[in-house]
Amino acid sequence: MGGYDNISLKPCRNSKEIIWHFTCDSCSGWWSIAASDQWSPKKLFCPHCSFKHIYNKANPAKTGDIGWV
Predict the structure, then answer these.
(1) N or C: fewer beta carbons within 10 Å in the chain?
(2) Is residue 32 one of the residues assigned to a domain?
(3) 49: domain range?
(4) What is the reported pTM?
């Protein structure tokens, strides 16, 4: 069945990754950070212009932002 008949199968490990996308209010550059479900960003800086940001989940999305994230 599918070429696995004569092979000893072992369980595999897995992990889940969330990709966070951010847009800088200063230069409009964007960047992404891959992390786990438990990661909660607090302070961020823009990798393009070094502008410092404080992440607040309660901040409303801006016009044009994807609302389902």
Answers:
(1) N
(2) yes
(3) 18-54
(4) 0.60
Token pair in block for residue 6: 């004569």
Band of residue 17 on the pLDDT scale cut at 50, 70, 90: confident
> Residue 24 in contact with residue 30, Cβ under 8 Å?
yes
Residue from 38, 54, 58 nearest 46 by CA: 54
Q: Name which of 12-16, 30-34, 38-42, 46-50 the model is least confident about.
A: 38-42
**Computed over its alpha carbons, how large is the radius of gyration of the chain?**
19
Number of domains in the chain: 1
Is residue 63 assigned to a domain? no
47 is a domain residue: yes
Nearest C-alpha neighbor of 44 from the set 53, 33, 34, 35: 53
